[in-house]
Specification:
Layout (H helix, E strand, L loop, with lengths): L17 H20 L19 H29 L3 H33 L7 H8 L4 E3 L2 E3 L6 H19 L1 H15 L4 H18 L12 H19 L4 H28 L8 H29 L7 H26 L6 H25 L28
Antiparallel strand pairs: 1-2
Length: about 400
């Protein structure tokens, strides 16, 4: 290990980075409670409590810009580590297809319909869930204000799969050019403060360039603004795993990155507090907001990667189980929150009690979904788990698991 930086140096590619495992676990855990808190924050979401709290705007605003950027960066790193263990690019792509597309299909057929049923209920739908699932869910196109079929929160899985397959295609088609481009980019970024400002400037520029031209709408072929924010971090994570020397500039730049995040966060909080909920700010303010979000997404990723490398890069008996559990947790949590809130909110309970019940029910559902699914062989691929290994070994433990 490189004593000056806390990283593993050139041997890093063959070893697991436990710090990024812990970072991924923490990020998905925050995501779950972020979605629970969305029930109580002013503004629009799938379902809202009758009581909302303006004070939640500040922590939610500070979490929002970097939580997904971070996950895509970690996923890119994990993809490179997994590819290094595979006999070919084709084998890597096939492995990712099984681990991503099967849960995506299962989620769209079994988990997402619950969320869509609640959505149409709020628009006056009068039938039971069974009738909805058998008759009305399997539509194509707009219906009752929503687009069918839907992947709802599983868009992350769809985007990650698309990025992975496109990268695999390039690696298989132009392997030497991709290697040379990666080497050149790593050399260019590993110079003074380029790793800090250049990606942040790129993300902000692409976001602003698309802001008033392309609508911010989820979809593989519509969300160009989202792709502009998520593809670069995914590629950076991939590049970092192949070029460990990029940990050095992160060690140098984490303090400026944290300072830049604080400035961007102050801008975002100010905008959100002045134009709360669904109130749109003027175009100039909106542009400043989007630029600050883009920059904060990158700078917080740099700071958190350094934190994971320096302070969290060690194993623990719970690490493997938690790392395996987060993807099943992610699959089930969103629908559980929405369905529970739909039945809970009309009871007129206090908001703190609503939050506690939502948290308890969501946690219980996640645990049951994971613990039950992992024990039944045919269910494992449906919830994003690989085949059970009879005798797992340390050398066989894949480097940094990912959704």
């Amino acid at each position: 290990m490189d004593a000056s930086t806390g990283t593993i140096g050139t041997a890093f590619r063959s070893q697991r980075h436990y710090g990024l495992d812990w970072l991924r676990i923490a990020a998905f855990g925050l995501l779950i409670f972020y979605h629970i808190a969305m029930v109580f924050v002013p503004g629009s979401w799938v379902i809202k409590s009758q009581t909302t709290y303006s004070w939640l705007i500040v922590p939610m605003t500070l979490l929002s810009p970097w939580r997904l950027t971070l996950l895509f960066a970690v996923s890119g790193f994990a993809s490179a580590m997994l590819l290094a263990r595979m006999p070919s690019v084709g084998a890597f792509a096939w492995s990712r297809a099984k681990r991503l597309l099967i849960p995506l299909a299962f989620g769209m057929a079994v988990l997402v319909p619950v969320e869509m049923w609640v959505r149409v209920l709020e628009h006056g739908y009068a039938h039971s869930y069974l009738h909805f699932w058998l008759v009305d869910y399997w539509r194509w196109g707009d219906w009752m204000g929503y687009e069918f079929p839907s992947w709802e929160h599983l868009w992350f899985v769809a985007y990650l799969a698309a990025y992975t397959f496109l990268l695999s295609l390039l690696l298989a088609w132009l392997p030497e050019r991709m290697d040379r481009a990666g080497d050149a980019l790593a050399d260019w970024l590993d110079y003074k403060s380029r790793l800090l400002w250049a990606p942040a400037a790129l993300l902000a520029t692409m976001k602003l360039g698309l802001l008033f031209i392309v609508p911010e709408k989820q979809g593989l072929f519509t969300d160009w603004s989202g792709h502009a924010l998520y593809v670069p971090p995914f590629l950076f994570g991939f590049l970092l795993a192949r070029h460990p020397r990029l940990w050095r500039p992160m060690e140098r730049l984490w303090k400026p990155a944290l300072a830049a995040s604080a400035v961007a966060g102050a801008i975002l909080v100010t905008v959100e507090l002045i134009w709360q909920g669904d109130i749109w700010p003027p175009h100039a303010v909106m542009a400043l907001d989007r630029a600050a979000r883009s920059a904060m997404g990158w700078t917080m990723t740099i700071a958190l990667f350094r934190l994971a490398d320096r302070m969290w890069n060690h194993d623990h008996p719970l690490r493997k189980t938690l790392g395996e559990a987060v993807f099943p947790f992610y699959l089930i949590h969103h629908g559980t929150i929405i369905l529970t809130a739909w039945y809970l909110l009309p009871l007129g309970l206090s908001a703190p009690l609503e939050f506690l019940i939502l948290s308890a029910v969501t946690t219980a559902a996640c645990l049951i979904f994971y613990l039950g699914g992992r024990e039944i062989g045919p269910l494992r691929p449906l919830i994003g788990l690989g085949p059970r290994k009879a005798k797992p070994t340390r050398s066989g433990d894949p480097a940094v698991s990912t959704a």
